[in-house]
Amino acid sequence: MDRVTATTPSRETSPSACSPGAPHGRASRRTIAACLVGAALVLGACAHKEDVRGSTADITAIEFVGVERFKKKDLLKYLYMGETSRLPWKQRYEFLEANLPIDAERIVAAYAAYGYYDAQVVSITPRRRHRRCRRRDAVTIRVEVREGEPTPVRSVRLEFPAGPPAGPRDRRVTESALRKQIELREGRTFEIPALNRSVDHLQQTLQAAGYAHAEVKESAVVVPGASADVRFVVRPGPFFKVGKIRFEGLGPIPERFVRNEVDYAPGKPYSPQLVRKVESAVYALDVFDTVTVHTRDGPPGTNKIDLVVEARPSRPQSIKLGAGFGLDPVRWEQRGSLLYTHRNLGANLTRFDLNARAGYAELPSMLNPREHGPIAKLDLSFRQKGLIEKRTTATLTPAFELGIWEGYQFYSPTLRAGLSRFFSRFVETEISYNFRFVDFFNVSPTISSQETILGLDFRDPYFLSYIEPSVRLYLTDSVLQPKNGAILGLIYDLSGLGGDFTAHRVRPSLRLYWTPHRRLTFAGRIELGWIFPFGPRGGAPLDLRFYLGGADTVRGWGLRRLSPQVYPAGCTPGEPDCRSIPVGGNTMILANLEARVQVTDMLSAVAFLDIGDVRAGVNEFRLDHLNYSAGPGVRLTTPIGTFRLDLGVRLNESEYAPDQQRWAVHFGLGETF
């Protein structure tokens, strides 16, 4: 380095009307007194109070001259200095002149780490500016750097003193595969971070292939500004498989159920990924506070690594109380909730959930309730994995609901019994039997006075018995929070095992996710629906037909309002007091597209486009009558879930909306899809 100049900053001031050097004529005693009083007030208001740490100024701007290798924000990560934000909760960088030579050395060291051994800091020049009526001054720092020439890599050698990896043929790692893990290339600039990352990549590649004790040593002979010769010494060591799995600290949790979750691991080639998979599988049982997996070498000569799973059971029971509200253009509701959970009922890992909700709903709103009434729902859920077969989850869910929709109120006891199973990570299947009884009351004459409306057979009360097989194919990076990939689904209902209705109900779906940047995700959904009545009791009940509109389907429409509708006798659509009643349809098409931008760790912004239509006829698709809505939204991620707020605006006219406003605000919990 030639020199580093740290220039002492000078404070700039301008002469005022009362300063001795300011031109003036004869000054009266009153004028002089006013100047003295004004000066005293200014000095009192703007006086600097010396900071106990010895700094009375903040660094507000840094200018780098001659820096091309680094972006400004990247180079600042290595330094004490930084730019103080105008936002009060952001970090403040105080100006300390003693740090300037230290930061100069850090800049030179940063350049050397990236192959610029001749880099020099020519000067660091601070400029101090007094901020009127502020306790602290502002300092702008100008840093001039001469980078010099980078040092290129001349050669990269990969050596195996004990021979190359010699495991099974299907797990053998070739030299060419290892070379792909080396970031340094001949002719490119030699960088120490790339050298260290290459060592990590080589070791991780070998361990992932079963070479648990693989070692990689690196060295480099560097002639600054001329060349760098890089050498990696690789000792793969023996090939290992997973041996026994031992459990510690399970407490009241039966070991056989825990072992069922990880019985695929023994005999598999060892890898850190497999260890993490075992840890995640045990933790996913949701009965442990912590799960840690340790490795231990097996008996000498066996080339086995045993896994020791250490767990700490959580409290089996929990109670959560809550309150909430729903806000929709055609429905407001207020409710309280209670959730009781027992995660190890009967000491056989049976999970029991009691979910009770009660409240009051107003249609269309609290400010103008034309219809209102109490709402309540009680769900009892029993779930156990391994009851029938160790990979199969059995569920039993009796429930009762008291509810209200436009045109009617109802109460309904239901029962659902199902079996579900994952076949590998990608395919989930489920089959369930469902029983449903519904009794309507306070029914609008518009519905009850007609035997058949738009193909709807209105029966009060009714009961329904049906089976529902379904399958989902997960071609995504994550099952619960996908960022890239596709999810294909198909749900089929067969009604006719007794009851008042017989019909086939088919709902295929496709969801797509693409994340080109860590803060930007595009998500899309396409879903179709058919109801095919058959037999003398062919039809679908009013409350189980297809409806769209609301926070989860087509925003810009009120809840269930995108649907065939009926009007009271003598009512003309579009009149202020003429309010239609949605009755659902037999054919449905839905498409959603969202661009999700993560602003902060908790806050995200969304832009969406929704498309949908519902028709009364069987297999009646009207692509020329699709309904469009679009708008912005925000997402707030909290410990209890993701809250969303969307503003949807309809983009075209619709036969279903003569009495509805063109926009709608929706609150919801969780992502739309």
In short:
This protein has 673 residues and is mainly beta. The protein has helices spanning 29-46, 72-76, 99-113, 175-179, 192-208, 255-262, 272-283, 445-448; strands at 5-6, 57-65, 120-129, 137-146, 153-159, 215-223, 227-235, 241-248, 288-297, 304-313, 317-328, 331-345, 350-364, 369-385, 392-405, 408-423, 427-441, 452-453, 456-457, 462-476, 485-499, 503-517, 520-533, 565-566, 581-582, 587-598, 603-615, 627-638, 641-650, 663-669.
- C-alpha end-to-end distance: 58 Å
Q: How many E strands?
A: 30
Helix/strand/pairing category: mainly beta
Query: Quick one: overall form?
Result: globular
Report strand order across the widest sheet. 11-12-13-14-15-16-17-20-21-22-23-26-27-28-29-30
- Can you summarize the main beta sheet? 16 strands, antiparallel
Oligomer: single chain
